Amino acid sequence: MLSGRWRYIIVVNVHAPSEEKSDEAKDSFYEELKQVFNQIPKYHTKMLLGDFNAKVGRENIFKATIGQESLHQDSNDNRVRLVSFTTSQNLVVKSTMFPHRNIHK
Known about the structure:
Elements lengths: L1 E2 L4 E8 L7 H17 L5 E7 L11 H4 L10 H12 L17
Parallel strand pairs: 2-3
Antiparallel strand pairs: 1-2
């Protein structure tokens, strides 16, 4: 927790289950994350950081949440879970909102 001028900034750092893990493990992770977020008062600023093991593609349907600058063309199942969570919590995925150098040429 960081102390801001008008409110606290709550930083939550996570490591999501990998793509190979069971749906039950992934569901359990996001349910626990949702419970943690719901315990934080709404007037605090929330920042979610970590490794979500998600390939976030460039699908048009999620542009408001993921932006246009993802490195990946296609998404994986973990992306659906990540975007669903961030949308439900009124968050955005910032790492896909600015251009990246393509290091995999």
